């Protein structure tokens, strides 16, 4: 910014005082010297016999009038200069603040993405080495979702402080690219071994205990590293390579670091294509509900169906949940998929017998979302599906992150008549604690207790059934196969098991036979 040279009010007063002295000096010079010369020079009569007092009175009079004449304009000029200086300083401060905002992230105080790109562009233009270490926080979305954005901002500020320490220690430049993505840039050559040690130090520092309010959340970081002239020669490409390397760490365990390799770039692009296909599948309802029957014991009459997701791909193949659910969780598409499955299933069940219910497993992120109960109940109202015919299944893993939120949400669902079942019971570490605290109506004994040759698990199953009776809970046994019949179903019924589910009673099917659904037609529409 060009500096404006404005005198201060004090300098202006000094200037006015100097002008006044000049007027007085000129008046004295005129009265005592110049007036006689001028008059004689003009040939005019001049009587030089005056008293000095008269001369001094003229000097004081002329000086006084000059002072009076300067007071008004002087005061106005001082005010104008003061206002101009104040406005200039404000403008200068605003410009300085604007320049800072243009280069620095307002939350963390680190260089922002624009400044990062300019820095790397300048280095590459000068053919100087550039090493980009991209840092993405692990599990940060869960912090924002379950602890709020204020806590998330506090985490980002603390991470920025730790990265500034890293920058000072290793002579690099730290920046925040956006969200929970940070970067440190090295503008000098570094050996791969040294970079590995620095990346490990970054991961260690960020993973160290951070905020008391974060517990029990884990906090960590995954790092991807790319190098100029080795991996890329252009800024955006260099950043992309670091992103590919970082993504490899995300899918192989997190809280680790990787250098970019061409092979990973091909895998990364394939993953991007797969993600795009999955997003389209959810939007176009290509992920559809399959129904597995749940039977009552000992009658073995079908009383409901569990909704299981299947991806009907454009090539005619069918994708299983293990192939696409983790990706949907990573993309944050599980709620959208769940809403679609519920809508399709409610429409399919609209003409079923009134005693048949639907059961659906709900993800950890959804069951701890404060808005989930209202959205879910509103959808069932919209689909005109009775609350008491719907069962929500949860796993113990879904409860570990935020059991308080899960408890509130389950209570609200339970209060509206929705059944709550604890799935995969027996595989978690705190099942009894959850049973006593949460609104659980039913437990589902995990299929691992009924694997072939696992007769030694019978005492444990018997104990679970006895516990359920004492807590007035229903029990469903999962994973009942053909080889279990008829001994296992009979044994389960005799020991108080209420329901069973498994291939023995039916595999997941795209449509429910009309006879099973209570409609007088024995045709099975399709079965998988």
TrEMBL record:
Q: Which PROSITE patterns match?
A: EAL, GGDEF
Residue intervals of the GGDEF domain: 128-262
Q: Name one GO molecular function term.
A: cyclic-guanylate-specific phosphodiesterase activity
SUPFAM superfamilies from the entry?
EAL domain-like, Nucleotide cyclase
UniProt KW Ribosomal protein keyword: no
* Keywords (A to Z) from UniProt: Membrane, Transmembrane, Transmembrane helix
Name the UniProt record assigns to this protein: Diguanylate cyclase
Query: Which species is this record about?
Result: Pseudomonas graminis
Question: Where is the EAL domain positioned along the sequence?
Answer: 271-522
**Recorded superkingdom:** Bacteria
**Pfam families from the entry?**
EAL, GGDEF
List the InterPro entries: Cyclic-di-GMP_PDE-like (IPR050706), EAL_dom (IPR001633), EAL_sf (IPR035919), GGDEF_dom (IPR000160), Nucleotide_cyclase (IPR029787), Rev_trsase/Diguanyl_cyclase (IPR043128)
The membrane-spanning stretches of this chain are: 12-30, 58-78
**CDD domains, per database record:** EAL (cd01948), GGDEF (cd01949)
